[in-house]
Structures are given as structure tokens and as C-alpha cells.
Specification:
By secondary structure, the protein is mainly α. It has one domain. It is built from 14 helices and 4 strands. The strands form 2 sheets. Strands 1-4 form a two-stranded antiparallel ribbon. It has a two-stranded parallel ribbon with strand order 2-3. Helix 5 packs across helix 6. It holds the Pfam family FA_desaturase. InterPro entries: FA_desaturase_dom, Fatty_acid_desaturase. It comes from Herbihabitans rhizosphaerae. This is Linoleoyl-CoA desaturase.
Length: 372
């Protein structure tokens, strides 16, 4: 069942915006040596794990060494993508003036080219979070993740598509900017994506050669075991990233919005949409680091350019603000959120009755729940 739509007055929206602006300004003014040391330590750890992992794969004939190598390489790839790449490309460390951590120059260890990702993720997703018809991360052009997405027989395969996307998540992100669904609808043409395709092929081929030709070849007679090891590390990274991201965006209770509802949106209303369109995952410190602190998806959507290590620090304040305004703060353990997401994927594979929405008025902005 959907919760009663949450309503705030224009005055409450304005006050909400001021409180969150003040919170952001206070934290950003406090950035300094501890934040600098943190990201350098994470990078040092990631590189050490990659060197150790690739070194151990030279001993692939010895099963314990192969397993340890795959484990180290998997953690290295997760850190590179989640806690380093994703966060650096959001501009979280631009204040350091280190070219290696510049959001416009950084490139990560995955098939998706950074330039394409910065457009589809940093701009499209974070600007139009959970606005139907605008945010292409709702279903990624493949899945039905919202009841207001028109049902078609194609969506009977929702669970299968989700499973394949999880296994091949690196390549799903790689292909995301082609907007195949829009091309099939005739909204765009293949020729519109010339620059996107060029970047895709350049980065995708380079990544595949590195993981499946160059590094395996360097291990000589261990070529096959190294290739399998690299593929396994990529698979583990894909599964982990998919689950963390889906748990932050699609559990029961996460809200979606229409273009009409968000027209002429104020800063307070934008913050409001981020808070209700996201979900957190509870866990320990190591879990949060491995999640790139996207386990604090609510805080990330509010302040995407704030160093993610600060999200656990501000989470209690954000939760208190939610409680002050009577807003839900969607959080739960990984098992709970995963179960919720899986249930939604299966449920929305079938036709569903559209839930009624509250008509907008001049004094309140209604929101509709997409809880499955």
C-alpha cells in the first residue's frame, strides 16, 4: 500500500531548502586535511590490492593463490568504481586542485567512458531524479521499475532482464548512453549518437583488451586462469554495484514524480524530491566504504559534490530534518532492501492498476508513492 501523499506548504519548502543549504555550507567549509588524507589512503589501498591481486594470479596453478588474487582484484575494482571513480567524477575532490582527482579528467577502471557517464549520471539523473520521462535511470531503458511506466508484454521478462543486467552491469552502463529505447520509439536517430559511440568503442575495446588479453598474456602459461580470474573479479564488482545502486533507488516507499509536478521547482522542492526519491542501506564502516557510501543514497542525492565520507556524519541531521517535516527517511538493512527491490521487479513484470494521484493545488505539491 502507498503511504498518504506527503505535503508541505511553500513556506515549509523554503525553510527546508534553507536548512539543507546551511548544512551543506557548514560541511563544505570544514573540508580539509582529513578528507585529503582519506581519499589518498583509499587510492593507496586500491592500488595495493590491484597489484597484489594481479601478482597472485601469476600463481594461478595454486588454487588458494588464485582465489586470493581474485578476491583482492574484486575489492580493488569495487573501490575504484564506487568510492573513488563515482565520487571523484561528481567533483567531490575538485577543491583539492589535484589533476589526478579532477572530476573532468578522471577515468575509471570500467567499460563506460567517463565523459558519457558524467552526462547521463551527473547531469540527467541527478538533475531529474525519479522524474518519469526525464530520469533514464528509472529502469535504465530495460526494466519496468515504476507502476506508471506503461506495461507491455515485453516486461514479462523483467526478472530475466534484471538478472542479466546485474551480471553484465559494466556493459549495461557502457551502452546506457545509446538510449536504444528512445531510438526504437523514433524520438532520436542512430546518427545523433556519433560522438557517444566513438567514446564507447574506444573505451570498451581498451577495457576488454586490458582485462582479457593484455594482463592474461603477461602471466604466460596462466593465460586462461588469469582471464577467468579477471572475468570473475568483474562479475563480483558488477553484482555488488548493481545491488547497491538498486537498493538506493528502487525499494518499497521510494517516490516518483511527473514533469508537471516538478515544473518551476524551487530549491527546497528539489531537495524534497531527492529525499523522497532515494533510500539508504544500514551497515558498518567497512560496508559503507565498499558501497562508495552510496549506502547513504539520500545524503548523496542531496549533496552529490560533498565528499562521500561525510555522509555518515550528516545522516543523523538529515534524518532529524525529515522527522521535523514529517517526511519518511527510507532506510534498512541490505537484505531488507534487496528483498524489496526483487519483489518490485517481479511484481512490475505483470500489468498493474495505476494508483490514483492527488491533483495538484496552488498551496501544496503532492507526491505519489511507487511502492510495490
Amino acid at each position: 500500500m502507498a503511504d498518504t501523499p506527503v505535503r508541505l506548504t511553500p513556506q515549509q519548502f523554503e525553510q527546508l531548502g534553507k536548512e539543507l543549504d546551511e548544512l551543506r555550507q557548514r560541511v563544505m567549509a570544514d573540508l580539509g586535511e582529513q578528507d585529503r588524507k582519506y581519499i589518498y589512503d583509499i587510492i593507496k589501498t586500491q592500488r595495493g590490492l590491484e597489484v597484489a591481486g594481479r601478482g597472485l594470479l601469476f600463481l594461478g596453478f595454486f588454487p588458494p593463490a588464485w582465489i586470493a588474487g581474485v578476491a583482492a582484484l574484486s575489492v580493488s575494482k569495487i573501490l575504484d568504481n564506487m568510492e573513488i571513480g563515482h565520487n571523484v567524477m561528481h567533483g567531490q575532490y575538485d577543491w583539492m586542485r589535484d589533476p589526478a582527482l579532477n572530476s573532468k579528467m578522471f577515468e575509471w577502471d570500467t567499460a563506460a567512458p567517463a565523459e558519457n557517464w558524467r552526462h547521463s549520471h551527473n547531469y540527467i539523473h541527478h538533475t531529474y531524479t525519479n522524474i518519469l520521462g526525464k530520469d533514464r535511470d528509472i529502469g535504465y531503458g530495460i526494466l519496468r521499475m515504476d507502476e506508471d511506466q506503461e506495461w507491455r508484454p515485453y516486461y514479462l521478462g523483467n526478472p530475466v532482464y534484471a538478472f542479466l543486467l546485474m551480471l553484465l552491469f559494466e556493459w549495461g552502463v557502457w551502452a546506457h548512453d545509446l538510449e536504444i529505447d528512445r531510438q526504437l520509439k523514433g524520438e532520436t536517430k542512430w546518427s545523433d549518437y556519433k560522438g557517444v559511440r566513438k567514446r564507447m568503442w574506444h573505451k570498451g575495446i581498451k577495457q576488454a583488451l586490458k582485462d582479457y588479453v593484455l594482463f592474461p598474456a603477461l602471466t604466460g602459461p596462466m593465460f586462461v586462469s588469469t582471464l577467468v580470474g579477471n572475468a570473475t573479479a568483474n562479475l563480483i564488482r558488477n553484482i555488488w554495484a548493481f545491488n547497491i545502486i538498486f537498493c538506493g533507488h528502487f525499494p518499497t516507499g521510494v517516490e516518483s514524480f511527473t514533469e508537471e509536478e516538478t515544473e518551476n521547482e524551487t530549491k527546497g522542492e528539489w531537495y524534497h524530491r531527492q529525499m523522497l526519491g532515494s533510500a539508504n542501506i544500514t551497515g558498518g564502516s567497512l560496508f559503507h566504504v565498499m558501497a562508495g557510501n552510496l549506502s547513504h543514497q539520500i545524503e548523496h542525492h542531496l549533496f552529490p559534490d560533498m565528499p562521500a565520507r561525510r555522509y555518515p556524519q550528516i545522516a543523523p541531521e538529515v534524518r532529524a530534518i525529515c522527522e521535523k517535516y514529517g517526511l519518511p527517511y527510507n532506510t534498512g538493512g541490505l537484505t531488507k532492501q534487496l528483498t524489496s527491490v526483487a519483489a518490485k521487479i517481479f511484481k512490475l513484470a505483470l500489468p498493474s492498476r495505476k494508483k490514483p494521484t492527488t491533483p495538484p493545488s496552488s498551496n501544496v505539491r503532492p507526491l505519489k508513492s511507487v511502492a510495490a
